[in-house]
Design brief:
The complex is a heterotrimer of chains A (about 525), B (about 300) and C (about 325). By secondary structure, chain A is an alpha+beta fold. Chain A contains 14 helices and 23 strands. Helix content of chain A is about 30%, strand content about 20%. The radius of gyration of chain A is 26 Å and the shape is globular. Chain B is mainly α and about 300 residues long. Chain B has a domain of about 200 residues: MetI-like (MetI-like fold), CATH 1.10.3720. Chain C has two domains: about 80 residues, no CATH class; about 220 residues, MetI-like fold. Helices cover about 75% and strands about 0% of the residues of chain C. Chain C contains 13 helices and no strands. The relative contact order of chain C is 0.14. Classes of the chains: A alpha+beta (about 525), B mainly alpha (about 300), C mainly alpha (about 325). At the A-C interface, helix 1, helix 6 and helix 11 of A face helix 2, helix 3, helix 5, helix 7 and helix 8 of C.
Chain lengths: ~525, ~300, ~325
């Protein structure tokens, strides 16, 4: 009647054995990862060394491999590996040639000529020539990418190495705009077969995509046919996806990856760790508060001025970056910039004046409620909560926080205009001013979050784009700042610097817009 | 995070097994002549620390507005992430914005406890109604209640919550309702099991034969039997609710700012916790103590409920 | 055997309405979520016409019922569609994720059993003693730790303080078994901390109940040593609860150890589910839900069968 126990006991014993072995095996496995070793032929004190693996941390998966899809730095880094960019914008705001030789205009921006290199091939054998570029731009325009840029260009093949590009309006800054939104060219044959989604990217870049997974990242291998002989130096380029920011830092310091980008305050405690180093991107941008100038409470300029007067920018930046030693600034430019002028700082920190303005506007309303749109990342949320407290010092003003996920931010704020005042989750770049300022303030422009539309501003921006020398540029920039200080569509509260946390063994790391490194130039020291 | 509370005996296994479980209880209930009555409970002592902690917490949450010297949870009392000092507001330091941690923890208790209580009530309502109908009328009604319970428990709770909150938006009411829905399958099963064993008793059968109305029977005779069974499980389920709300906040889908909630405070400090641990230490310890207290209380109630059942 | 087959059959049949409700519910939920797949793919700068075009080609503009029936028809033939961004077959991706989560779940369950059962037996041997009480408190405490706190603590201990294990990431066992185990250690430990406390309590409670049964008293009266009674006579009836709880636990972990996978960047089902919900990847969400229901049904069938095998008094209904 009682069943025999033996099978049960044996099963238990076997299970115990397997389990214990597993536990022991994990403990006995090799000690913690060392930073990527380089299996090089000959270690040399000077000069790049070939071999090794470069791993970059990303915060999420890539949205699209389409050459026209530029949505975020993380997409850009992966596309750069596969396509290489026609042109790059470096830290100082200069155009640097990439896979193209040059993009120049002889007639002040009316027509441009793109000059390509000879003998460049895509990894499927197709030739990288002017026809290929034209085909790409046509497809990008047709598929709706590049933010309207491709649609505004007319291209004509002059000869296999030269393409004429004519923007619909004369634009001396086209090189920057192409570097920003149309730098990637895919193999026309593969692009032609793209279907609904282009997910098998073939480019002429330093690496070839071998595998891609939305949770584990990508693996790229060296393109031996890359046009720049000898490069890339590393054998393989990988991305790993880590969602939690603190874990990202830990992954790099531990050797699980070689590079990540983020805010400098994430790296303060690992600065002394010899396995890593921190490099800042010199060109800054603005962290700022934005207003919806077209509708709602803040369409009145006095309301915007009032909000600025209620703010304390020092406190905002300190909470944002968790560093009590920082000081904020309501000026668009850093004090090291040639365009900096204190008279253009937006007035802040005067509660009495703010209350006065508010009483003027409110009429006989007892309380006014406004919506503050907040992108939900911890540092943004706490800064917004602080902003809410600062604004609510104004008697009669109530501020409601509306949290929006980063993926929904663009759709809700930009496209639906569903906000009155918002905490801008990114950075308004200041480099180069000839594209970033128009992008932000021209009527209907790509990054014009505030719906700002002012004839004087539009006219100033035209002058800025047409400017032919530094003096004219400086003059136009000064006027832009003046109008911003008067109209207050935004309130910058700090200059933003990003930093890269890098494995100490990485050499020749060139950081370019938008917060990526040039993958073919990097080599790993022995 | 456990989907069902740790079982302590007869009322723990899913509905399929509840009938078998009664076989065990019967065996244990029979006593041989001359033997001491069995004590089933192992933890005989009332968990005083748990009761005290929870009482203090509830008291503080209710009287928060009137505590002298306690700053508002929205008020900036100093720089961000200040270490604890001697003032009442600053006794646990400040958070990433500069607000009092103590104040936010106390007001956060309101939110967490409200969520726990209201979602439990929603879950209980759904659970008792569906379970009662299923257990009383059997056959078709029981199948329907099975399907409902299985549907809810087939999906991992966190995923179900993510989907619901993503669609309904993350506000206090939606999160509470979603949590109530998610936990209701537990109550459905427990209720149904208890109802089934209750209605097989002779006095119920007799009453039905005599023509007593169903609703009256359900409310007056069957329902009281549910109370010890459900009561032993409620504290632990509440603990689960509090934890799950925290997990939602950790993933970014929780109660939006600036309303304080423990999970939200921990999530908000996630990026600076290594450099400034004071920001999350308070909510973490409070969360732990509260959940632990609920669990201890639940253990105690469960052991008492089992004891009663064993005595026939 | 007939009764068993009938029982299995009835469980499977029970699963069908559940499956329909769950997947239809997910399809309906999509209508309430903000944004659209087209917007997610094309991103910021696309025109509304282009967004609409992608939505149409993905069948997103159809009414809820049509969408659902299309999906169901395809799914019954084994085609679960393609993922949103990279248009990979959902089934392939899901199987990869399932493999990872299955490895974590199984390792966690094994480790939890190995830890919990012996301790429970030891504690029951001296019921009421110091070990028993201490272990009871520890188990309660571990159960009161939310998983998002557990992962942070484990990381602080094993990655920051004593750099023994990688902070994040995953290496498939086919690529490098040693590396795979190293990456699996912390996630498995995080899961096992909770599960072993759970198992401990279940076994301990059941043991204390069983030990009061008549047949145990008889065995003691016969003079059998305590340890022998524990193993041969007491453990087996206690296993019935444990079997159920193991089933629940496995189902729960397979459904996604969400927090653990999120924190340690393990490419499992939990992590995939979070991403799928954030970007509204409907084919993936539907597939995950289907998988969860199937897993649930299968596990309960197995648990019921195991129940019957362990306890001869019980027959499968």
């Amino acid at each position: 009647m009682r069943r025999s126990w033996r099978p049960k006991r044996h099963i238990l014993a076997a299970v115990a054995a397997i389990g214990l072995t597993a536990l022991v095996a994990t403990g006995c496995a090799a000690p913690a990862d060392e930073p990527s070793p380089s299996n090089t032929e000959s270690p040399s004190a000077s000069g790049p060394v070939r071999g090794g693996s470069l791993t970059v941390v990303q915060s999420g998966a890539i949205n699209s491999w389409h050459p026209g899809a530029i949505s975020a730095a993380q997409t850009f880094q992966r596309q750069q590996a596969v396509y290489d960019a026609l042109l790059y914008v470096d830290d100082d705001g200069n155009i640097v040639p990439g896979i193209a030789e040059s993009l120049e205009s002889e007639d002040g921006g009316v027509t441009w000529v793109l000059t390509l290199r000879d003998g460049v091939q895509f990894s499927d054998g197709a030739t990288f020539d002017a026809e290929a570029v034209k085909f790409n731009y046509d497809v990008i325009a047709e598929d709706g990418f590049s933010g309207g840029l491709a649609q505004s260009l007319t291209t004509e093949v002059i000869d296999p190495l030269h393409l004429q590009i004519t923007p619909d309006e004369a634009d001396p800054t086209l090189a920057y705009r192409i570097a920003e939104a149309l730098p990637f060219i895919a193999s026309p044959e593969s692009l032609a077969e793209r279907g609904d989604v282009y997910n098998d990217p073939i480019g002429a870049g330093p690496f070839i995509l071998e595998s891609s997974d939305s949770q584990s990242g990508e693996r790229f291998v060296r393109n031996d046919n890359y046009w720049d002989d000898g490069k890339p130096y590393v054998d393989e380029f990988r991305t790993v996806i880590v969602s939690d920011p603190a874990q990202r830092t830990l992954t790099v310091t531990q050797g699980g990856a070689d590079s990540m980008n983020g805010y400098p305050f994430w790296f303060t405690e690992v600065e002394d760790n010899p396995a890593v180093r921190v490099e800042s991107m010199l060109s800054g941008g603005d962290r700022m508060i934005i207003f919806n100038t077209a509708s709602g409470f803040f369409s009145d300029v006095r309301a915007r001025q009032m909000a600025a007067l209620a703010m304390n920018v020092d406190e905002l930046v300190q909470a944002n970056l968790s560093d009590s030693s920082l000081t904020g600034s309501s000026n668009m430019f850093p004090d090291t910039s040639v365009y900096y002028d204190t008279q253009y700082s937006i007035p802040t920190n005067d509660l009495a004046k703010a209350q006065e303005l508010f009483d003027e506007i409110r009429g006989d309303q007892a309380t006014v409620k406004v919506k503050l749109a907040v992108p939900s990342a911890p540092e943004n949320v706490r800064t917004s909560e602080l902003l809410q407290l600062q604004l609510q010092q104004i008697e009669g003003l109530e501020v409601d926080l509306v949290q929006i996920t980063l993926t929904d931010w663009r759709g809700t704020v930009m496209d639906n205009d569903d906000y009155e005042i918002g905490f801008y989750p990114g950075v308004m770049g200041l480099n180069p001013v000839r594209t970033t300022l128009p992008n932000a303030f021209a009527t209907g422009a790509r990054e014009n979050w505030t719906n700002f539309s002012d004839p004087e501003m539009d006219e100033t921006i035209d002058r800025l784009r047409q400017a032919t020398d530094e003096a004219a540029v400086a003059d136009a920039v000064a006027d832009v700042q003046r109008i911003v200080a008067e109209q207050v569509p935004i309130v910058p509260f700090a200059i933003d610097y990003r930093a890269f946390l890098l494995n100490s063994k990485l050499q020749d790391v060139k950081l370019v817009a938008p917060y990526i490194l040039i993958s073919q130039d990097v080599w790993i020291e022995d | 995070m456990s989907q069902q509370p740790p079982p302590t005996g007869a009322t723990s296994a899913p509905q399929d097994a509840s009938r078998r479980r009664s076989a065990f209880s019967l065996t244990r209930a029979i006593q041989l002549p001359g033997q001491q009555p069995r004590r089933r409970s192992r933890h005989t002592g009332v968990p005083w620390l748990a009761v005290i902690w929870l009482s203090v917490l509830v008291l503080a949450a209710i009287t928060a507005d009137w505590i002298p010297g306690l700053p508002s949870y929205e008020e900036k009392i100093g720089g961000f992430a200040q270490p604890p000092d001697l003032s009442l507001g600053g006794i646990l330091g400040t958070d990433g914005v500069g607000r009092s941690n103590l104040s936010r923890i106390i007001y956060g208790a309101r939110i967490s406890l409200t969520i726990a209580v209201v979602s439990t009530m929603i879950g209980l309502t759904i659970g008792v109604v569906v379970g009662m109908l299923g257990g009383y009328y059997r056959r078709a009604a029981e199948s329907v209640s099975n399907v409902i319970a299985n549907t809810l428990s087939a999906l991992p709770p966190l995923l179900l919550l993510l989907a619901l909150v993503s669609a309904m938006g993350a506000t206090l009411p939606t999160i509470t309702i979603a949590l109530g829905i998610v936990i209701s399958d537990l109550y459905i099963r427990m209720t149904k099991g208890a109802v089934i064993s209750a209605i097989s008793r002779e006095y119920i059968l007799a009453a039905r034969a005599l023509g007593a109305r169903d609703l009256r029977l359900m409310v007056r005779e069957v329902m009281p039997n549910l109370i010890p069974v459900l009561g032993s499980v409620v504290p632990m389920a509440m603990a689960i609710m509090i934890i799950v709300e925290g997990s939602l906040s950790f993933l970014g889908f929780g109660i939006p700012a600036p309303t304080p909630s423990w999970g939200g405070m921990i999530a908000a400090g996630a990026d600076i916790m290594r450099t400034q641990p004071v920001v999350i230490l308070g909510p973490v310890i409070t969360l732990f103590l509260t959940v632990f207290s609920f669990n201890s209380l639940g253990d105690y109630l469960a052991s008492r409920a089992d004891g009663r059942e064993g005595k026939l | 055997m007939n009764a068993t087959l009938r029982a299995i059959g009835s469980r499977l049949i029970y699963g069908v309405p559940v499956l329909i409700i769950v997947t239809a519910g997910a399809a309906a939920l999509l209508d309430f979520m903000p944004g659209s797949p087209g917007l997610a793919i094309l991103g910021d700068s696309a025109t509304p016409e282009q967004v609409a075009r992608i939505n149409a080609s993905l069948g997103y503009d159809l009414p809820f019922w049509e969408r659902y029936f299309n999906w169901a028809g395809q799914a019954l033939q084994g085609n679960f569609g393609n993922t949103l961004f990279t248009q990979e077959p959902v089934l392939e991706v899901l199987m990869r994720r399932l493999g990872v989560t299955a490895q974590l779940a199984l390792m966690a369950m094994l480790s939890s059993l190995i830890i919990a059962v012996p301790f429970a037996l030891l504690a029951a041997l001296r019921a009421g003693g110091i070990l028993d009480r201490v272990l009871g408190v520890i188990a309660s405490a571990l159960l009161s730790l939310p998983s998002f706190v557990t992962v942070v603590l484990l990381s602080l201990i094993f990655v920051v303080a004593m750099p023994m294990f990688p902070a994040t990431g995953w290496v498939p066992p086919t690529e490098d078994l040693g590396d795979n185990l190293r990456h699996a250690f912390l996630p498995v430990l995080a899961l096992a901390v909770h599960e072993s406390a759970f198992f401990y309590r279940v076994v301990r409670t059941d043991l204390s109940g069983v030990l009061r049964e008549d047949f145990v008293t008889v065995a003691r009266a016969k003079g059998l040593p305590k340890a022998r009674i524990m193993f041969r006579h007491a453990l087996r009836p206690s296993l019935t609860s444990l079997a159920t709880v193991m089933g629940l636990s496995l189902g729960r972990m397979l459904g996604g150890a969400v927090i653990v996978e999120f924190f340690f960047s393990v490419p499992g089902i939990g992590a995939e589910a979070v991403t799928a919900v954030s970007v509204k990847d409907m084919p993936m969400i539907q597939a995950i839900m289907t998988l969860c229901v199937l897993v649930y049904v299968v596990i309960f069938i197995i648990v019921d069968l195991a129940y019957a095998w362990i306890d001869p008094r019980v027959s499968v209904r």
